[in-house]
Amino acid sequence: MRSDVLVLGAGMVGISTALHLLERGRSVTLVDRGLPAGETSFGNSGLIQSEAVIPYTFPRNVGVLLSAALGRRIDARLRWASLPAIAPWLLAYARASSPEAVRRTALANVPLIARARAEHERLMDRAGARHLLREGGYLRVNRSALALEEAAAVAARVRDEFGIAFDAWDADRLRAEEPHLSPALAGAIHMPEPARVEDPGDVGTAYARLFEGEGGTLVRGDATTLSQPDGSWSVETEQGTAAAREVVVALGPWSGDLLRRLGVSVPLGVKRGYHRHFRAAGNATLGRFVVDDDHGLVLTPNKRGIRLTTGAEFATRDAPPTVRQIDAAEGVARGLFPLADRLEPRAWLGARPCLPDMLPAVGPVPGRPGLWANFGHHHLGFTLGPTTGRLLAERMTDGEPFTDPAPYELARFGGSGGGGRTYHRAPRNG
Ligand SMILES: Cc1cc2nc3c(=O)[nH]c(=O)nc-3n(C[C@H](O)[C@H](O)[C@H](O)COP(=O)(O)OP(=O)(O)OC[C@H]3O[C@@H](n4cnc5c(N)ncnc54)[C@H](O)[C@@H]3O)c2cc1C
Q1: Longest C-alpha distance within the chain, in Å?
Q2: Whose CA is nearest to atom 7 of ligand 1?
Q3: What is the pLDDT of residues 388-417, one digit of tens each?
């Protein structure tokens, strides 16, 4: 089996990259060991975060750090047994969370975020999946007037500098819009521009079908068999050996494993996150994606029920799951919205693939001609998959990249500089 490009990994990032390459006239084989959009791109919260220029930073407040270390938080939790293995990545992440570095990341996010929604809508239209999109923006709710005021002040700074719209809703407006949320809430910051989807896995599956329908080849295979025996790259699949001149590594949180085998070391860590579904109690309804800003959890309507997702668990990718973070989130969520019984016996666990500066790697793998990277989309891989898929395909096909690709080069780590204002945000939703 021969094609121009092998794309390894059929998550939102790999599928989107494969589609953009196909559109630019390349023959593409998309390889995954499982179902398309069956991993991180299945279990996320499904928000197209077209407002998210400010990255989720490493907690810099000592109180937050301590409570995260002691396992007392829902938005951030450390698994102590993983600490020796993840300490170097955590340190790099902490360094990249300085005000100067955060501003650099925010500026680099702007061109990607600005296109994110339009790129999805374009693919949704082609894939016949537009019906999965839900308008109405999303809400960040607070219990105290003070917390709400602080959240509004941060949102106003971001609006003034980056043009991201928001509305501040008082308790009455919130009750009118979402009558079944807790009456104890002081109000919410409403972000009107982002959209949610009914089920992120369904969106990925629709894009994978589009890829096959437009002539792409989707096969099951193990990316770790990648080799370069005679100048071209090849990988073993259920349909035999697949070979190509060029390869894209889009393995999400598994990308570092493959690159390590090829002698390339990347500072890819993970922030794990859980989800669990519930029936809504009685006649309760939830119309929007809701971030509990005080506790760092998300409740969102999903085709399976109300999906509850947690913030970041700092642990090695493959450490056994624990229920403490999702159970604690469930306790808080039950006070936020009337949830009935759980809809499945076990919580889902996934891993956000994170580079220390919270920007993806989109470009050539240095020193490995023909090998390209598209991974490390952290909290925003569902949002950004179609956009970085375009950017990489433009680079690989000598098209004019829609933005300067320099901030997303894999070779970028180790730089410093910048300056400006602070917009720290805890590692909460997404
Ligand atoms: C709880 C949670 C909530 C989130 N919410 C949001 C959100 O609301 N909005 C948003 O934009 N982002 C969100 N994210 C982040 C987003 O889900 C990820 O950034 C995104 O899914 C990463 O996509 P990907 O394609 O890079 O990786 P993946 O979806 O993980 O795809 C990688 C693929 O590689 C395959 N693979 C791995 N190893 C091999 C191998 N050896 N051989 C072959 N195939 C292999 C896997 O099977 C998988 O299909 C959330 C993440 C979590 C955990």
Answers
A1: 68
A2: 430
A3: 999 999 999 988 999 999 999 999 863 332
pLDDT band at 430 (very low <50, low <70, confident <90, very high): low
Whether residue 164 has its Cβ less than 6 Å from ligand 1: no
Mutate to test the pocket of ligand 1, among 7, 13, 40 (most ligand atoms within 8 A of CB): 40
pLDDT digits over 227-269, tens only? Answer: 998 889 999 999 999 999 999 999 999 999 999 999 999 999 9
Domain housing 349: 2-137+193-412
136 lines ligand 1 (CB under 6 A): no
CA distance 120 to 150: 32
Any domain includes 186: no
Whole-number pLDDT of residue 417: 29
The tally of domains found in the chain comes to 1
In CATH, what number is assigned to the domain containing residue 207? 3.50.50.60
Do the beta carbons of residue 326 and residue 89 sit within 8 Å? no
Q: How far is the CA of 275 from the centre of ligand 1 (A)?
A: 14
41 close to ligand 1 (CB < 6 Angstrom): yes
- Report how far residue 61's alpha carbon sits from residue 79's, in angstroms, rounded to the nearest whole number: 19
